[in-house]
Design brief:
The protein contains two helices and nine strands; from the N terminus they run αβββββββαββ. The protein has helices at 12-39, 99-112, and strands spanning 45-48, 51-54, 57-60, 64-70, 76-81, 86-87, 92-93, 116-118, 123-124. The N and C termini lie far apart (50 Å).
Length: 126
């Protein structure tokens, strides 16, 4: 054997290197997005009759399809809009203080407005 059998695979080396670089850039982008979200100021959740506000966005109860709560140690809450399957980043959050009371108040508001609350995982963007 003179090594001629392995020479045909040298064409793959730049392809594999290029794919590795693309994956690395993608992972660094994800880490950057996550770090930028960690630096954001907490948004305030305001419950009012027939609507809720998260930060500066207001959503009528009729726009909300389901509220999902997921997690054991620090539950994440996601608000799923009608006709959607993925929760956008602006509609999932964690309660910073007294999480159980926050979830109870949100469940009470949802019951008053006829919105289902489910304790299960939800799809979300990054």
């Amino acid at each position: 054997m003179n090594g001629a059998n392995f020479s045909r695979h040298r064409d793959l080396d730049p392809l594999i290197l290029g794919m590795g670089v693309v994956v690395l850039i993608f992972l660094l982008l994800l880490v950057g997005i996550r770090l930028s979200r960690l630096k954001q100021q907490p948004r305030q959740l305001t419950l009012s009759p027939g609507a809720l506000e998260i930060g500066v966005s207001r959503y009528a109860a009729s726009e909300i399809g389901e509220i999902r709560v997921y997690g054991v140690f620090g539950a994440y809450t996601g608000i799923l809009r009608r006709g959607r399957r993925i929760v956008p980043p602006s509609l999932y959050f964690r309660f910073l203080e007294d999480e159980e009371q926050g979830v109870r108040e949100l469940e009470r508001w949802a019951a008053e407005n006829g919105i289902k609350v489910a304790r299960k995982n939800f799809l979300k963007w990054i």
